[in-house]
Amino acid sequence: MKWIRMVRWLLMATPGTLLAQSPEARTASTFIFQDCKARWTPQQLTLGNALVQRQWRIENGLLINTSLKDNVTGKEQLLGASPQPSPSPEFEVRETCRKTTITADTGKAVVVETTALLVTIQSEYESYTLTTHCKIFPQTPAVSTWLRIEQKTALATAVTSNEQVTGIESGKSSQSVKTDLTDVLLLSHVHRQLLAVTLMDHTDDKDNLVQVNTYLMTNPSTNSWSSNLFFLEDQFTKEGLIFLKEAPLPYARPVKSVADLRQNATQFAFTGLGAGADSIRESYPFTILLYQNGKAGRTAVLQQYQRRFRTYDAARDELIWHSIWGDRNRDGRMTEGFLSKEMALNRQVG
């Protein structure tokens, strides 16, 4: 009887600890797929797997970065919450969000893709609906986001500047970018290297198809770059972040953007949705990946992510390899005799 009275006393003395739940806990929803997990309330979204976890605060229907955690090393990557929501449309969101609906499901973009966990945040305003999509694959240190915009009435959008970005641009205005954002992160730049990858086309005219420019991030400054692929790496630990815009090369995009990355000290603003001007439009996906072990690690992570878009099938893939580089699209050369010679040469080189 004595221990029963003690338990009764504990329940009466500490109701807040043992019995009560916060309003957020009562309204939280969870969706789990393999090692991927999404958890959300009306105020917050957390999405991750065994390797990476991202967290956002939900304000006026848009997402604000609050955490980016490497689950392998246990390190938090962000210095703090972002000053701007992202992704955000080309116009400034001044209307009050009337309703936000969050759902989660699994799916594939194409039949050969690996199944992913998808979270949708649909926010309705008077003049438009903004839908943010978040995507994560199992056992892959990558999270992708993109924005769908549905305008009910015409709005004044941001004016595109004629400014051209050829590489690194210094001394620009230090004002925060507020529109046309794919992502905004507060990141440490001390003892970091930024690698901007330039990918070239027209293989008949160019031999060096991949160029990597490295920049030291020692002094706080304002810079901008155009590229589809960036690496931000700690020079001591060789751990880093990969930023990938899944879009055509800058010169080939139907909708041009002045820059893909604008850095102002610790603020890294990735810009250029590329959504166009239709009343219903969608941005390019923007993906953040984490890696360890320097160049070898980031190469392995990118290859792992790429393979999520086409599941390897031994009965279908890598049965034959051939190259028609330099043939100037002369399809007439692709005969049985030509392919037989190619296969014989391949056997000689192993």
Structure description:
Helix content is 14%, strand content 37%. The protein has 350 residues and is mainly beta. The protein folds into two domains: 24-307, Beta-galactosidase, Chain A, domain 5, CATH 2.70.98; 320-350, no CATH class. The strands form three sheets. Strands 7, 8, 9, 10, 13, 14, 16, 17, 20 and 21 form a ten-stranded antiparallel sheet that branches. A six-stranded antiparallel sheet has the order 1-2-3-4-5-6. The termini are far apart.
List keywords for this structure.
ten-stranded antiparallel β-sheet; 350 residues; 21 strands; mainly beta; Beta-galactosidase, Chain A, domain 5; six-stranded antiparallel β-sheet; 14% helix
Structural class: mainly beta
The CATH class of the largest domain is Mainly Beta
Count of DSSP H/I helices: 5
Helix content: 10-25%
How many individual β-strands?
Answer: 21
| Strand proportion | 35-45%
What overall geometry do the principal axes of the alpha carbons give?
globular
Give the assembly state of these chains: single chain
* Average pLDDT taken over every residue: 86
Number of domains: 2
Give the CATH architecture of the largest domain.
Answer: Distorted Sandwich
Distance, first to last CA: 81 Å
Brief account:
With 350 residues, the protein is mainly β. The protein has five helices and 21 strands.
Architecture blueprint of SSEs:
Elements: H1 2-13, H2 15-18, H3 23-27, E1 29-33, E2 36-41, E3 44-48, E4 52-59, E5 62-70, E6 75-76, E7 99-107, E8 116-124, E9 128-136, E10 142-151, E11 169-170, E12 181-186, E13 192-199, E14 210-216, E15 222-225, E16 229-234, E17 240-245, E18 261-264, E19 267-271, E20 280-282, E21 286-291, H4 294-307, H5 336-348
Antiparallel strand pairs: 1-2, 2-3, 3-4, 4-5, 5-6, 7-8, 8-9, 9-10, 10-20, 10-21, 11-15, 12-19, 13-14, 13-16, 15-18, 16-17, 17-21, 18-19
